[in-house]
Design goal:
- InterPro entries: BURP, BURP_dom.
- This is BURP domain-containing protein.
- Helices cover 11% and strands 41% of the residues.
- The chain is mainly β.
- The protein has one domain.
- The strands form two sheets. Strands 1-2 form a two-stranded antiparallel ribbon. Strands 3-4 form a two-stranded antiparallel ribbon.
- A hairpin with a 2-residue loop joins β3 and β4.
- It is globular.
- 2% of the residues are buried.
Amino acid sequence: MVAFCHLDTSKWNPGHPAFEVLHTRPGATPVCHFMPYGNLAFIKTKGITASLAS
């Protein structure tokens, strides 16, 4: 399993469903996604787009 976390959510829309589910607000806490083995993720880092497959 892989976790991807958005550490700075301060500029997100306050109405985003993640904030409702987590009972929080923009900028208060990180928001993470958990992806099971076998899922495909496209990640942009330092101007290079990478593809990782578990």
